[in-house]
Amino acid sequence: MTSLTRIRQTPYLPPLVLLLWGWLLVWSSLSPRLDLLLNAVFHPVVAIAGVVLMVFGALQLRSVHRLKAPSAPLSWLVSAGVALLILLFPPSPSFSDLAANRTDNLPEAPRLSFFLPPEQRTLTEWVRLLRSQPDPKLHAGDPVRISGFVLQRVGEEPQLARLTVRCCLADATPAGLAIEWPENADPKPDQWLAINGTMTAKTRNGQLINVVKPSTITEIPRPERPLEP
Amino acid sequence: MTRFATSWAIFQGLLIEALPFLLLGVSIAGFARWFVPQSAWVKRLPRNPLLAPVVGALLGFALPACECGNVPVARRLLASGAPLGTGFGFLFAAPVLNPIVLASTWAAFPDQTWLLWARPIGAFLIAIALSTLLGLLPESRLLASALLEERRLNQPLSSVGLLQRRSGLVGVSSKVPEPRAANSSLRPAELLQHGTREFLSLLTLLVFGCALAAAVQTWLPRSWLLALGSSPTVSVLALMVLALVVSVCSSVDAFLALGFAAQVTPGALLAFLLLGPVVDLKLAGLFTVLLSTRAIAITALSASLLVLLIGQWVNLVQL
After folding, report:
1. Across the interface, do A42 and B204 touch by the CB < 8 Å criterion?
2. Tens of pLDDT along A170-229?
3. Tens digit of pLDDT for each residue in A48-77?
4. 8 Å CB contact of B20 and A86
5. CA of A160 to nearest chain B CA: how many angstroms apart?
6. Which helix H or strand E contains A179, and what residues bound it?
7. CB of A134 within 8 Å of any CB in chain B?
8. If you ran DSSP here, which 8-state letter would residue A155 be given?
9. Cβ of A80 under 8 Å from any chain B Cβ?
């Protein structure tokens, strides 16, 4: 009997695989992993599901010797392997690469919101405002304090962008603002920057658009919650 | 390498978001099995070919699950001997005809009232049409073999013979599930063991579906699909492909659709909201526990055709 067959025949395998997946969900909720993957609304759901799976796994471990169990399919071992890989290799997506593949069809704000004074607006709020009031001259001269990652699309000037997510990374939608990069600036894709400056109205490709003219550009670490609802 | 890392993250996002809903579905199926002896309610379900899918479709209001969660519930219904129409009506309509999904559609499109009735009615019609179509195939060519055997064990001998149950035949594999008395309910430990086996089997298929969806999403730029324009037919087809690829849960797909609602035709928008809950890449593996390969192909093709026709009709009326 090969060791693989012996593992598949052990009655402890199903509850242990269940415990592993439960731990994966609980650990994902405790670590910053979920902040990179899901809208915050789903975080408690994932944590509860993880705890429930672990409880089910533990209860089954207690009664495992009392029930006859057929040999586990090989696919359960594969699924346990996938869970281990997920635990070992946390996600490190390139937001720039992800956003470059997607159009800027930014969803509406999840709740009714007032537009804050210009210097308090986040990058996403700026993009929503500029969509709803599309006259670029209306905002020229306003102070801007935003942060985001450098989004590099092929054949385009780099933008500063954020990703909005309703469900998970699969539906991430970019919100980007054009920046008038100083000559000495060298923005690299996925680099997180904080920019203080002024909103201006410039003609690019024959179209009048809002462009941020930075007065200071500071490199910052990726925020704890990089995705926006 | 960057692209692989992005694909790995999308895979994790899809899987971790879908897992709680799969657990919810398996739990609902398990508790339904425990609390209600199957003979009590399965026997009362109408067997009329028209009424059965209607009842199945409306069951979604009682068991709110998205498209991952309703696969185990539909499997439990069919395994318990419920009419095929009821099982399929539930499978195809419940991901839309449930309070959570209807509320999220209303929250995303409060000013598009036509969508609030067109989505449930469209989902209902598709479920009835698919159930009727699949009902034309004999059970033996329609259902996955393990489900078929379990279903036959739970049907009375007057309708299923010993040969069909494969009981007592020499040379038959001993993997046939053990028959239970119709009125007996499972002990909690047995229930937990069954639930665990069901969850782990479906989980593997979900992993496969999420990997497929993440890979296609990463290597097929979404902008290509949305750039396919505003023509009445091509836009519907493009959004149908997008629904297949994106594979997000039906309880949040309306918010995603909101993002490109202004860029696409109304028919395309409705097509996205109708097709995703019935057919998507994430479901590719999960459906194999219910249906034969032929039945999955028929479901995918018929659902696509129906959604295309509905989308074109909406564009004809609205444009």
Report:
1. no
2. 778 888 899 999 988 888 889 999 999 999 988 888 888 889 999 999 999 998 888 887
3. 999 999 999 999 888 777 767 677 788 889
4. no
5. 19
6. strand A173-179
7. no
8. T
9. no
Mean pLDDT of B205-221: 78
Average of per-residue pLDDT across B35-60: 75
Tokens read off for B222? 């979404």
Domains and CATH numbers, chain A: 3-92 (no CATH), 96-228 (2.40.50)
Q: How many CB atoms lie under 10 A from the CB of residue B265?
A: 24
Is B110 buried (19+), middle (13-18) or exposed (0-12) by CB count in 10 A? exposed
The verdict on A14 touching B (C-beta cutoff 8 Å) is yes
Rg (CA), chain A: 24
Residues 6+ apart with CB under 8 A from A142: A118, A198, A199
Q: How far apart are CA B21 and CA B68, in angstroms?
A: 6
pLDDT confidence of B172, banded at 50, 70, 90? very low
Q: How far apart are the CA of A27 and the nearest CA of chain B, in angstroms?
A: 12
Say which of B17, B192, B263 has its CB closest to residue A60.
B192
Rounded CA separation B143/B161 (Å): 18
Neighbours of B276 (CB within 10 A): 29
pLDDT at A101 exceeding the cut of 80? no
What beta strand segments (E) does B77-203 contain? none
d(CA B249, CA B288): 19
User: Looking at the whole model, is its pTM more than 0.80?
Assistant: no
Is A94 within 8 Å of B189 when comparing Cβ atoms? no
Of B117, B113, B120, nearest to B92 by C-alpha is B120
Give dist(CA B15, CA B25) in Å, integer: 15
Say if A208 is an interface residue toward chain B (CB within 8 Å).
Answer: no
Q: What is the rounded distance in angstroms from the CA atom of residue A200 to the CA atom of residue A182?
A: 14
- A38 and B5 within 8 Å at the Cβ level: the answer is no
Please say whether the beta carbons of A178 and A210 come within 8 A: yes
Using the Cβ of A93 and the Cβ atoms of chain B, whether some distance falls under 8 Å is answered with: yes
Specify the pLDDT at position B158. Answer: 52
Residue A131 CA to residue A65 CA, distance in Å, equals 63
Which residues in chain A are closer than 8 Å to B104, comparing Cβ atoms? none
The tokens describing A148, both together, are 């985001």
User: Which residues of B fall within a CB distance of 8 Å from A38?
Assistant: 13, 16-17
